[in-house]
Amino acid sequence: MGATPRPGDPAITPALVADHGLTADEYDRLVAMLGRTPTLTEVGIISALWSEHCSYKHSRPVLRTLPTKAPHVLQGPGENAGVISIGDGLAIAFKIESHNHPSAVEPYQGAATGVGGILRDVFTMGARPIALLNSLRFGSLESPRVRWLVAGVVKGIGDYGNCVGIPTVAGEVVFDPSYEGNPLVNAMCVGLLKESDLIRAKAQGVGNPVIAVGARTGRDGIHGAAFASEDLSEASEAKRPQVQVGDPFTEKLLLEASLELITSGHIVAIQDMGAAGLTSSSAEMAERGDVGVTIDTTKVPVREPGMTPYEILLSESQERMLVVARRGHENEVRAILEKWDLVAEVIGEVIAEPVYRVTEGSKVVAEFPGSRLVTDCPVYHPEAREGEEVQRLRAMDVHAIAERPEESDPFWTLEQLLSSPTIASKTWIHRQYDSTVRGQTVVGPGHGDAAVVRIPGTTKAIALKTDCNGRYVYLEPRTGGRIAVAECARNVACTGARPMAITNCLNFGNPKRPEIFFQFREAVGGMGDACTALGTPVTGGNVSFYNESPGRAVFPTPTIGMVGLIDHVEQSVGGAFTTSGDAIVLLGEPTDELGASEYLSRIHGVTAGAPPRCDLERERLLVDVLLSAIGAGLVRSAHDCSDGGLAVALAESAMMNADAPRGFSVDLSAFTLPSRALLFGEAQGRVVVSTPDPQAVLQVAAQRGLPAFVLGTVGGIGEDVAFQVGSKRHTTSIARLATAFHDSIPNLMARVAVSSDDAAPAGSTR
Amino acid sequence: MKFGIVLFPGTNRDGDAWDAVTGPLGASAVRLWHKDHDLQGADVIILPGGFSYGDYLRAGAIARFSPIMQEVVAHARAGGPVIGICNGFQILCEAHLLPGALLRNASLQFRSMPVTLRVENANTRFTNQYKAGQLLRVPIAHGDGRFAIDADGLRALEDAGQVVFRYVDRNGQVTDAANPNGSLDNIAGIINAGGNVMGLMPHPENAIDPLLGSTDGLGIFTSILAHVAA
Questions:
Q1: Is the CB of residue A569 less than 8 Å away from at least one CB of chain B?
Q2: What is the mean pLDDT of chain A?
């Protein structure tokens, strides 16, 4: 027995193998596994399953070093999403994933289908999605093409999530020229489930039917997984047809139908047909269940006649699920799908024989022994060596960079930083996302350091955030990896939530280049250090390599998505100053850090120096102090110091409520640092809180050995801002700062019609 | 008092409406499936927010032909109260239970943000717990909310006091800056001539809890109860 070629299949030549992205060694491995020449269909299957996107062949050994266990982790890496317990028999499923390359060539559909895919990963676990986040990286907004990408990505994310009815509650957007040719679009979804409804994508039960559910299979997205596993280039524009097209309405139907199926008890497993479509979903379900599976491609509901098994297997048409039902329950499954006007067809069966077999009617077109098509994937251990350019940049003495004359007015510098698109208000983006649907959003986008979403029927809420400073990771990967996790934990704790666990989306360049693999290995190591120190295990994630466009890789960007838990939602706090006369207290202390800062980048055009030191013990203390102080009801606002340092943190707390910007006054004369490091340096482990009872806050900090300082006082709405730095007192109007902060991105985006032909590349349809 | 909350396949704020009427109000509610012809004895019909049938063609254009809408129309024609929120407002216009139409936002972008509304008519069964001129803080979340109607239609609405809510600034003034979608004369919500069918774009069901920033939307639901009790 064995598969035979279909009439008209091309001969398997080295050129055809290379076109499928397989190396000669990988092809030899395939031949050895089969004991014969593969068919075209088999080459297609392997090219998808052994693509970097599906196989993690360059990343797996490094990922294994991450901490993944804790008593509250119900499902760690390896499933469609991670799952943690939040007590009361409830659990949270969450996952982040990239859709970078599709978004680079077709921003609207690329981003939309990224949201669709991550929603399916979460509801596949039996969880109802309750929140979406996204982490975006773009080049400079000065570029018309970047504005076209931003407008398309934001509309794509909004249109999809808004229609399905899942609030987009948080995220971050960073602009840096390193992302110019290769934007990053990472989408995170968070779902709520009863622990008893948790279901895994594990095929079981010989004789059970395999059912295709949801949308019909078309010719879109063929080889999408392979496209995601190569560098972007001029030729990538021609791969626009490999980008799938999203249909959020069908997704909504699929969501409801899937959750109904899971609670009905008629099915044993369910998996999203995501990257590499039917191939990867069926092979992975069989591998997890250690069973065989047979699929007949003539049974798959298709959009058009004449589709070959190769096309049906590799299509990435959206809004489809693969289900293993209980034998004899097929009609019940169909009835549920019909209620939602969706198609369900039995396309295969779980079999005892340890093979993965695809037939076209009665003819076998692909057959692999056991689960080896998943497990036999090669694993690579690429060389890792730090690039010399980075070493040189890191060693640069950034303190020797002379101040510009305008910097004698610190508010001039602050204005520049507040209007830097990375720091400036993202309201232009957030207002396109429905953040209030489902009626549980306590803190939405732009109102706090993390989103706060209430858990109905309990007193609890969860806090959600994504973070990563790619510039830090570029200049010193291990420190950057640590800070990504620590900053996320700080942000989550600022709302009053205990950090619980993370998911991650590791966006890097080409791992075959030693300097890139060095970044990857070290950054993951740093993440692991921080996760261990902060008690936030990794529950899953996604690796996206090959984020390069001609000439350069993106900043290494290991995006962290974190979930925290608040026991009493009414205790949660936002980031904005609320009350005139409250004391402003700094938890943590300013130190002389200037390297890798937004200040250097924005004011001096320099990306250099070592990123700030990250003391993980100090970060843990800070989280504990925040939770104690917030839990005791002492804190009215909390906001961490990150991009732009202390001065930006203070200004943001003053202006976060756009309708009621407040003045404030701080005296920093007790600190003897150079003023630019004091105001704009990005020393880690610091949070600005406002409180009616500063002595009590200082006491909570002192009890745990955390330095803390009373800096000043919150003023009234519209009042002035005053800084005492050394012997000088500087004042300005809050309106001046608010204009810089709130108007920057709208003004940039208004520069040209964002859909104009000169911005869109030739041949684009949008 | 029983609320019937219509569920189209793409409805997504049904739970929000459900929470608003069953939570703080303590009223009972049933979900009404779009393929059914049964209002299950509901006294007040709510058409909640969402994307009824995907709304790729025109918001609410297909929904008006659904089986349940035949019953909703009959209920409204018989004087029964119906409230359409966001997508529900769009459907009521498509079904000709309310005049006018809701077009793509003038910005061509979705808008999700809190807005300030001014109560223009507090003498309706949906607004009797408010005072005329009262300002409310309520979120919006829509891409097609620009109310449009011809000149005669507008005059008729104004003359009969059928404009119920307008978008205004924090001081209660009708300004262009306060208009989030380009609606004609800043119109956010209207009522039919019979006074039993109201549609509005903002989401009062998302303004029922101080923890979420506002309780200003509650008055619509308490007004309905008060009207029945009166």
A1: yes
A2: 93
Q: Between β-strands A82-87 and A90-98, what pairing exists: parallel, antiparallel or unpaired?
A: antiparallel
A660 touches chain B (CB under 8 A): no
Domain count for chain B: 1
Largest separation between any pair of C-alpha atoms in chain B: 46
Q: Which two tokens stand for residue B203?
A: 């989401």
The whole-angstrom separation of Cα A252 and Cα A161 is 10
Say yes or no for a CB contact (<8 Å) between A249 and B15: no
- Select which of B75, B86, B142, B227 is catalytic: B86
More confident residue, B14 or B57: B14
Nearest CA in chain B to A427: B113
Q: How far is CA A247 from CA A123, A752, B49, in A?
A: 16, 29, 18
pLDDT at position A226 is: 63
Cβ-defined contact of B49 to A437 (cutoff 8 Å): yes
Identify the CA nearest to A394 among candidates A565, A223, A612.
A612
CA-to-CA distance for A483 and A468, rounded, in angstroms?
8
Read out DSSP for A290-330? T-EEEEEGGGS-BSSTT--HHHHHH---SSEEEEEEPTT-H
Give every strand in the sheet of A538-544, ordered side by side. A441-443, A451-454, A461-467, A557-566, A498-507, A538-544
> Out of B71, B94, B205, B227, which one is annotated catalytic?
B205
Write the CATH number for B98: 3.40.50.880
Q: Would you give the DSSP letter of residue A611?
A: P
Would you call A646 exposed, middle or buried from its count of C-beta atoms within 10 A (0-12, 13-18, 19+)? buried
Whole-number pLDDT of residue A756? 43
Å between B13 CA and nearest CA of chain A:
6
User: Which stretch of A368-372, A388-392, A759-763 has the lowest confidence by average pLDDT?
Assistant: A759-763
Touching B: A residues 579-598, CB under 8 Å: none
Closest residue to B12, CB basis, from A158, A165, A442: A165
- Nearest chain A residue to B109 by CA distance is A432
Stretch 133-152 of chain A: residues touching chain B, C-beta under 8 Å: none
Pick the catalytic residue: A53, A72, A101, A742? A53
* Single pTM value for the model: 0.95
Which of A158, A439, A659 lies nearest to residue B206, judging by beta carbons? A439
Q: Is B13 within 8 Å of A454 when comparing Cβ atoms? A: no
Nearest chain B residue (CA) to A446: B113
Residue A466 touches chain B, beta carbons under 8 Å: no
CA distance B53 to chain A (A): 7
Residue A758 has pLDDT above 60, yes or no: no
Asked if the model's pLDDT at residue A766 lies above 60, the reply is: no
Q: pLDDT tens, A491-537?
A: 999 999 999 999 999 999 999 999 999 999 999 999 999 999 999 99
Domain containing residue B116: 2-229
**For testing contact with chain B, the best of A166, A260, A430, A431 (most B CBs within 10 A):** A431
Kindly provide the residue ranges of all beta strands, DSSP E only, lying in A437-567, ordered along the sequence.
441-443, 451-454, 461-467, 498-507, 538-544, 548-549, 552-553, 557-566
Beta bridge partners of B33: B7
In a 3-state reduction of DSSP, which class is residue A561? strand
Q: Residue B43: which pLDDT band, with cuts at 50, 70 and 90?
A: very high
* Residue A55 exposed, middle or buried by CB count within 10 Å (0-12, 13-18, 19+): buried
* pLDDT tens-digit map of A196-219: 999 888 888 999 999 999 999 988
The DSSP code for A6 is P
CA distance A175 to A436: 27
What distance in Å separates the CA atoms of residue A445 and residue A431, rounded to the nearest whole number?
Answer: 9
The band of A761, judged by pLDDT with boundaries at 50, 70 and 90, is: very low
Catalytic annotation on A53?
A: yes
Across the range A61-76, mean pLDDT stands at 96
Structural contact between residues A135 and A749, judged by C-beta atoms closer than 8 angstroms: no
